Structure formats: C-alpha cells, structure tokens
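Hi all, long-time lurker, first post. I run a small reading group and we've been trying to get comfortable going from sequence to structure in the token notation. Rather than ask abstract questions, I figured I'd post a concrete chain and ask someone more experienced to write out its structure so we can walk through it together at our next meeting. Sequence below, copied exactly:
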Amino acid sequence: MSLIELRDVRKIYRIGDIEIRALDGVSLEIHEGEYIAIIGPSGSGKSTLMHVLGCLDRVTEGHVRIDDVDVSRAGSDRLARTRNEKIGFVFQSFNLLPRLNVLENVELPLVYSGIGKSERRRRALEAVAAVGLSDRTGNRPNQLSGGQCQRVAIARALVNRPRIILADEPTGALDSRTGRAIMDLFRELSQRGHTVALVTHDANVASEAARQIVLRDGKIV
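-- Answer (accepted) --
Happy to help. Here is the structure in token form:
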C-alpha cells in the first residue's frame, strides 16, 4: 500500500481574470521507504507539489492520502497533526532561529508537540548525533558553516521521528563539496527506512534518488 497517494490533483490560483494551474491533473504514488526526486524548471509546479505533499496547502480538486488519511478533505487540526507527527521539512534557507543554539533549534518541533523537557532533550541529542553534530550542541547558527546549519535543519526534521522527509532545494545554498555530504546524509536516511522526497532543479542532485518525478507546466511528464 502507498504511504502517499495523489489522484487527479489540481491546484488553481486565480489573480483577477487570470487562472494559473500550478498543478494540473497530477496522480502519484509514493511507497514507504522510497527515495524520490521531484524535478523540473522554474514554474513547473515543484514547490506547489511539495506544499501539497507536506499538508501546507490544500488542493483545488482531487484527493491526497497520507498514511491512509484523506488530507485533502481533513480539517485544519487534522492537517496540523499530520504535519507534526508524520512529516519533517528541510528547506534551502535552513530556517534556524539565530538566538537559539543547535540543541534548542532541534527541540522546537517537540516544544510545539507538548513533549516534556527531559524527553525533548533526549530526543534532540539523539537527532543531533544522527547528523554528526554532537560536538556542536551549544553553538548558535552564526557559529556554524552552511553545511552544519543544514545538518541542524535535518536533525530538526528528524526529531519527531517522522515517516516522511520533504526537502526543498536542500543543497541550493551550499558549495558542491558540502552539498555532496548532505546528499550522502539523505541517502543514509533512506537506507534507515525514511521516505525521502526532495525538490530540485538540479539534474545531478535528482540523479541521487531511486526515482525521478519530472514536472512541466503542472503535469508529470
């Protein structure tokens, strides 16, 4: 059974009399443990598809099922619970809070989930160790390299033990050597059983995945 299933999904934006079909009849299945790349030129619908997969945006038409829940028809509370419990996000810009150290940044999703302090600390230390930054827990983002910041962002995505990791241009702000290390980390996460979907315009990055989903003009081609 698919972990994620999209059926005839459309996402339509209207600006005055102009209709923009960001997604136009997309059907897709992603199985548990798969490592996929969503690739296409700017404006192809990649980011919109990621927002739909991550329950950050609702579809105009069609159905989206995540772990056998039809999130396209779910209420706001159910969407938030699905995001918090099942999905970890990694962004190009890291989105770390500058006043917090590594451990505090990684703990944040657990704070929002209402996890107690001692359990938060234990799980955050475990996630930081998983990305190889146990010696940097007290550092703030401005004391880290770009690659280290992205590792913190990945640890934060892992801390709620999600089944799905969504990454949006995760190497876009990094040099090639650092980007290579981050891609190696995603491959390791996939091998550990996480379902990984990354959005990229870079064919070299996409080639790391076991399957590539190519978008153009809101359609899978």
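A couple of things your group might point at:
Residues 50 and 139 are 31 Å apart (CA to CA).
The chain has a mean pLDDT of 92.
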